[in-house]
Amino acid sequence: MSKGQATKASILHEALQVASTVGFEALSIGQLAERTEMSKSGLFAHFRSKEQLQLQALDHAAAWFTDAVVRPTLKASRGEPRVRELFERWLVWETEVFPGGCVFIAGSNEYDDQPGLMHDSVVNHQRDWAEFITTVAGTAVSEGHFRPDLDTGQFTFLLQGLMLGYHHAARLLRDPRAVDRTRSAFEQLLASSR
User: Which domain of life, per UniProt (predicted)?
Assistant: First the structure.
């Protein structure tokens, strides 16, 4: 990685920390320049617009998510062990990576009703993730760990609902039992899938 690429990655990392707490729309080149101790013109040279900063930050988050969650999940044994690894890695992502919670949830809330490139990018990332969950659940079916008639799309929907429930309970309600409740609900989901 060149010095310029490393600098840009560092900027995007900082942008995601900001976006997780105040949202992508509140993210600005000026604010980021102050936090990174760079000039506005230096930052502008990297991104050219606020929208490009937002889009590249979201893509940076997707690459980070792939490295932190997707790749390690694929290293786990096929079937239920892989589903469990997916859940554990995802829960770590939700609980430990960003100070304000998952940037994909933040982006989903911000852009669900706003047409444009950010909306489309959030949708594409979320669809890719849902497809990955469905595929991993499908391997659990093919390995005989889950029942043959399991609706893997419904499994994906329920697992995503669990994680959204976790986010709501932990971030908004500050429920100290959010992780325990999420783990318990996950075990119930697995039991109903066997």
Answer: Bacteria
Most confident of 22-26, 83-87, 109-113: 83-87
The answer for residues whose C-beta is within 8 angstroms of residue 100's C-beta and 6 or more apart is: 19, 20, 21, 22, 106, 171
Rounded to the nearest integer, the mean pLDDT of the chain is: 92
Q: Which domain holds residue 133?
A: 57-193
Amino acid, single-letter form, for residue 109:
N
Token pair of 98, please?
Answer: 């960003």
- Predicted TM-score (pTM) of the model is 0.91
Q: Is 138 part of a structural domain of the chain?
A: yes
User: Which string of DSSP letters, residue by residue, matches 106-174?
Assistant: HHHHHHTT--SHHHHHHHHHHHHHHHHHHHHHHHHHHTTSS-TT--HHHHHHHHHHHHHHHHIIIIIS-
Alpha-carbon distance 154 to 160, whole Å? 10
For the domain that residue 103 is a member of, what is the CATH number?
Answer: 1.10.357.10
Measured CA to CA, the distance from residue 13 to residue 8 in angstroms comes to 9
Q: Is residue 159 a part of any domain in this protein? A: yes
Q: Is residue 20 part of a domain?
A: no
Specify the number of domains making up the chain: 1
First vs last Cα of the chain: how many Å apart?
45
In a domain, 4, yes or no: no
